[in-house]
Structure formats: C-alpha cells, structure tokens
C-alpha cells in the first residue's frame, strides 16, 4: 500500500499517523481504483505489511482509521488485508 498507491503527505519515509497519507499519483490513483471497480467489475483488495503495529509505532485502530478514509475517498467497496506481525 505505502509507496505503491499511497505516500506520507508529511514527506517522511513512513506515515506518522492515520492521517499522514496522500495518493502517490495525485487523483490518478483514486480514479483508477474507482474505474477498475465500477467500469471493469474488479473487486479492490489492498495487501499491506504493517510491521509498525508489532513495533508499537502504530495500532490496529490507526490502521482501521486510515483504511476507512481511503475507502471513503475512492467511494467503492474495498478489502484491506494487513500483516501486523512478523510471526
């Protein structure tokens, strides 16, 4: 997810919180995701490694907030799958 469709809007390498993100390619990314679902009939599934949860740098609640905001901006159903541990 990070650095494939999103980047931190703060300019940091990793997002600082659930609101520190923007589209990697401005509105093009959002529009393409919506087009893939609406026009082409694809289901949008986002896979992400979120090791920051295991390291205490973020929480699952922060991730849920971020995922909800992303889905709201795209305005189509989305499924997020996040690996939150290294086990």
Description:
The chain has 2 helices and 4 strands. The chain is globular and about 40 Å long. It has helices at residues 26-38, 60-74, and strands at 6-7, 22-23, 44-49, 78-83. Helices cover 32% and strands 18% of the residues. The longest helix is centred in the last third of the chain and has 15 residues, at 60-74. With 87 residues, the chain is an alpha+beta fold. It has one domain (6-83): 3-Layer(aba) Sandwich (Rossmann fold), CATH 3.40.50.1000.
Instruction: Summarize the amount of helix as a percent range.
Output: 25-40%
Strand content: 15-25%
End-to-end Cα distance, whole Å, is: 20 Å
CATH class: Alpha Beta
Count the domains: 1
- The side-by-side strand order for the widest beta sheet comes to 1-2
- Mean pLDDT across all amino acids: 94
Helix tally? Answer: 2
Write down how many β-strands occur, each being a DSSP E stretch of 2 or more residues: 4
Largest sheet: 2 strands, antiparallel
Series of secondary-structure elements, N-terminal to C-terminal: EEHEHE
CATH homologous superfamily placement: HAD superfamily/HAD-like
CATH architecture: 3-Layer(aba) Sandwich
| Helix-and-strand structural type | alpha+beta
Using only C-alpha atoms, the radius of gyration works out to 13 Å
Low-confidence stretches: none
CATH topology, by name, is Rossmann fold
């Amino acid at each position: 997810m990070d650095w494939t469709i999103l980047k931190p809007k703060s300019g940091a390498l990793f997002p600082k919180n659930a609101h520190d993100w923007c589209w990697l390619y401005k509105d093009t990314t959002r529009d393409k995701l919506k087009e893939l679902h609406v026009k082409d009939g694809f289901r949008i599934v986002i896979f992400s490694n979120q090791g920051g949860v295991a390291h205490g740098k973020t929480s699952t609640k922060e991730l849920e907030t971020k995922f909800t905001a992303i889905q709201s901006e795209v305005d189509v159903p989305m499924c997020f799958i996040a690996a939150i541990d290294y086990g």
